[in-house]
């Protein structure tokens, strides 16, 4: 590498470092900056830059975009910006900051607790070569089954058997497992570069780190901790190779993105990039104080047009340059807040994101940490939502609460009460019972209370509103009856999820009953508590097979993923209503206030598709119920969660005709019959 490179004025956009063999253009926005310099480093370990380029307006500044071009700069060069600003007392301060649009970052020298203003930052952007590959059409959510997983934790356990555990490359080796499971999309917990050291002192004292990744520092860079290569310039290629491998297997890639806060924290947090470059625009502020609607010390001010434009550009980098298929937005109700923090009637961010990414799945977590709740009315036209109301209703029903049959029927039918009035469809309801945030499925049926002492916060953290049922015993037990009931209860949950209209989402490891030992907030547990233990695929192989068969049943029944809401009117292809609801007694209303039993008959969407009859009994007594006649067809038993595995679910070709006119629905069970 040369000692110095020739420079020219460059152009004000696009933001970031755009590399070409002849010249690399650098551009960054800062209205408050009194001066700006580009610092070029040979590598992560260099104490000082080998070239410092001072930018001088007007030649190097246009509308507060600072820019310079460096001739024949090789990819792999490390860089940062030095920005001169004025502090609150009027004195000039110089800060080294990270490029908000760095395509790759090095964080090897970063020590969060030791950082002081004016010192070298310890993390640096890295110039990367562009990859001009044609972008395939995004894989949409019609008929989707989403699988939420953590890139590191999915293969970090010694039992994973992959060559490069905990990495993008390691995840590629597990694609055959996911394809065999039958999922259509993976939803990856945050993969944008984040600060693993962003934890409270009590958590750090236990040697714990920020594991989930909801602490971003560079929104456009793949997290270097998930890369097998130590060369940051190669990490973007590794991420792209992972996406290509998923696409080759027919699996879409969704990213969980954190556009509501950053790792810079509040007033006392470090200055990483936005605090130095955009202190007046990027965050919600009240004077010198940072408004906190995220529980993380700061909140991104998406009501500012320039901030929204920057976030949109970040998303387009992931979509257009790395070919991901869609996004899930953490604490997305932050997008609805105006500059004063109050909700806006027409917030610009959701509409701008939707307009910039046509045809891509966009999934909102439609609430924030300060009380905004938008389940059913998140702004925009085509947004999907994590349906928190579905989760809560199903959990209450599964644990045996009476009087919920009407609400459960609405949830099973796609939550039309939430989405039909806004011209949305069942697919817009992302249904889930468990996710990364909360109990795993095993723990949902094994614990009444959270057990988060290992997190170092005296069990104060985590959700109190678990709506769980421990089947009579808290935590571990050797009692066989309790274990059978727990396994049956877990199968009930997954069966109802996969029998619901809408878009189902599974939590990685639930298919093999992975446990976190009652910890419902394992955000800092980068260890075996959170990792996928691949030995469970053998130990709990019956559960794994149940989930495979349930996903296969769902995917061979288009009637479970209808493009429009059910009406109760005649299905033309079958000559019977598209759905009919039943109580335990013929002619009796299924909406009895004390009922814990519900059944429905679902017509096939075509003359070839089998009709379905589903019996759901969450009471403590058995019910002998009539099976509805289906002209020209006979019922076949497909699944009964009360039966011992492997007889709990039967592959289509192995099903036997059910000749009796009635069926004995056992306590706390779900039954599925297919008519053909």
Short overview:
By secondary structure, the chain is α+β, with helices and mostly antiparallel strands.
Report how far the terminal alpha carbons are from each other.
71 Å
Q: Helicity range of the residues?
A: 10-25%
Biggest beta-sheet profile:
8 strands, parallel, barrel
| Assigned CATH class of the largest domain | Alpha Beta
**Oligomeric state of the chains present here:** single chain
Low-confidence stretches: none
CATH superfamily of the largest domain: Glycosidases
**CATH-level-2 architecture of the largest domain:** Alpha-Beta Barrel
In terms of DSSP E residues, the strand content is: 15-25%
Q: Could you explain how this protein is built, in words?
A:
This protein has 676 residues and is of the alpha+beta class. It folds into three domains: 7-126, Sandwich (Immunoglobulin-like); 146-558, Glycosidases (TIM Barrel), CATH 3.20.20; 565-675, Immunoglobulin-like (Sandwich). Helix content is 19%, strand content 21%. A hairpin with a 4-residue loop joins β24 (570-571) and β25 (576-577). The model has no long low-confidence stretch (mean pLDDT 96).
What topology emerges from the helices and strands here?
Layout: E1 7-8, E2 16-19, E3 23-29, E4 35-41, E5 51-55, E6 61-62, E7 65-71, E8 78-86, E9 92-97, E10 105-106, E11 124-126, E12 146-149, H1 168-172, H2 175-181, E13 185-188, E14 192-194, H3 201-204, E15 216-222, H4 232-248, E16 252-257, H5 274-277, E17 285-286, E18 289-290, H6 305-321, E19 326-329, H7 348-356, E20 362-364, E21 384-386, H8 388-398, H9 405-412, H10 416-419, E22 429-431, H11 441-444, H12 480-498, E23 503-507, H13 536-539, H14 541-555, E24 570-571, E25 576-577, E26 579-582, E27 597-602, E28 611-617, E29 623-626, E30 635-640, E31 662-665, E32 669-675
Parallel strand pairs: 12-13, 12-23, 13-16, 16-19, 19-20, 20-21, 21-22, 22-23
Antiparallel strand pairs: 1-7, 2-3, 3-7, 4-5, 4-8, 6-7, 8-9, 8-11, 10-11, 14-15, 17-18, 24-25, 26-27, 27-28, 28-32, 29-31, 30-32
């Amino acid at each position: 590498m040369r000692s110095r490179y020739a420079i020219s004025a460059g152009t004000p956009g696009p933001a970031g470092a755009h590399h070409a063999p002849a010249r690399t253009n650098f551009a960054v926005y800062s209205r408050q900056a009194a001066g700006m310099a580009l610092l070029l480093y040979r590598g992560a370990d260099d104490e000082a830059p080998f070239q410092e380029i001072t930018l001088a307006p007007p030649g190097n500044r246009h509308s507060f975009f600072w820019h310079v071009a460096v001739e024949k700069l090789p990819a792999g060069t490390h860089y940062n910006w030095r920005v001169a600003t004025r502090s609150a007392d009027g004195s000039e301060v110089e800060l080294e900051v990270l490029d908000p649009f760095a395509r790759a970052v090095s964080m090897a020298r970063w020590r969060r607790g030791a950082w002081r203003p004016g010192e070298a930052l310890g993390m640096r952007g890295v110039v990367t070569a562009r990859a001009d590959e044609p972008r395939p059409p995004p894989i949409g959510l019609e008929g989707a089954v989403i699988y939420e997983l953590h890139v590191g934790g999915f293969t970090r356990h010694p039992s994973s058997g992959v060559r490069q555990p905990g990495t993008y490359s390691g995840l590629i080796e597990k694609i055959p497992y996911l394809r065999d499971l039958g999922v259509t999309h993976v939803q990856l917990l945050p993969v944008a570069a984040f600060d693993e050291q962003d934890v409270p002192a009590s958590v750090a004292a236990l040697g714990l780190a920020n594991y989930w990744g909801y602490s971003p520092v560079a929104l456009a860079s793949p997290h270097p901790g998930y890369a097998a290569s130590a060369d940051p310039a190669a990490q973007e290629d590794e991420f792209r190779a992972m996406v290509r491998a998923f696409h080759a297997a027919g699996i879409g890639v969704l990213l969980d993105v954190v556009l509501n806060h950053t790792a810079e924290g509040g007033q006392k947090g470090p200055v990483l990039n936005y605090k130095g470059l955009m202190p007046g625009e990027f965050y919600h502020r009240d004077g010198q104080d940072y408004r906190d609607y995220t529980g993380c010390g700061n909140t991104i001010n998406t009501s500012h047009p320039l901030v929204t434009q920057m976030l949109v550009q970040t998303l387009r980098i992931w979509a257009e340059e790395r070919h991901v298929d869609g996004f899930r937005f953490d604490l997305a109700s932050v997008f609805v807040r105006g500059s004063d923090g109050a909700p806006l009637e027409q917030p610009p961010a959701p509409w701008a994101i939707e307009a910039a990414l046509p045809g891509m799945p966009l999934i909102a977590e439609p609430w924030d940490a300060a009380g905004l709740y938008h389940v059913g009315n998140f702004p925009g036209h085509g947004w999907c939502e994590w349906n928190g109301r579905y989760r809560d209703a199903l959990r209450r029903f599964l644990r045996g609460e009476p009087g919920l049959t009407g609400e459960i029927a609405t949830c099973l039918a796609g939550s039309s009460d939430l989405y039909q009035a806004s011209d949305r469809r069942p697919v817009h309801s992302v249904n889930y019972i468990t996710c990364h945030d909360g109990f795993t499925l095993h723990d949902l049926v094994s614990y009444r209370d959270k057990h988060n002492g290992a997190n170092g916060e005296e069990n104060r953290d985590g959700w109190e509103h678990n709506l769980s049922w421990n089947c009579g015993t808290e935590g571990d037990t050797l009692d066989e009856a309790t274990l059978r009931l727990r396994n049956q209860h877990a199968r009930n949950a997954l069966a109802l999820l996969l029998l619901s209209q809408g878009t189902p989402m599974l939590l990685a490891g639930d298919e093999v009953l992975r446990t976190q030992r009652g910890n419902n907030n394992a955000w800092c547990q980068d260890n075996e508590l959170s990792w996928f233990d691949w030995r469970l695929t053998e130990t709990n192989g019956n559960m794994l097979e149940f989930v495979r068969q349930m996903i296969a049943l769902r995917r061979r029944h288009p009637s479970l993923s209808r493009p429009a809401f059910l009406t109760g009117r005649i299905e033309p292809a079958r000559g019977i209503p598209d759905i009919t609801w039943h109580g335990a007694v013929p002619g009796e209303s299924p909406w009895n206030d004390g009922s814990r039993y519900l059944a429905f008959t679902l017509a096939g969407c075509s003359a070839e598709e089998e009709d379905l009859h589903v019996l759901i009994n969450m009471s403590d007594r058995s019910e002998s119920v009539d099976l509805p006649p289906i002209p020209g067809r006979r019922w076949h038993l497909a699944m009964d969660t009360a039966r011992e595995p492997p007889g709990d679910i039967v592959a289509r070709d192995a099903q036997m005709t059910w000749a009796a006119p009635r069926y004995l629905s056992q306590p706390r069970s779900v039954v599925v019959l297919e008519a053909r």
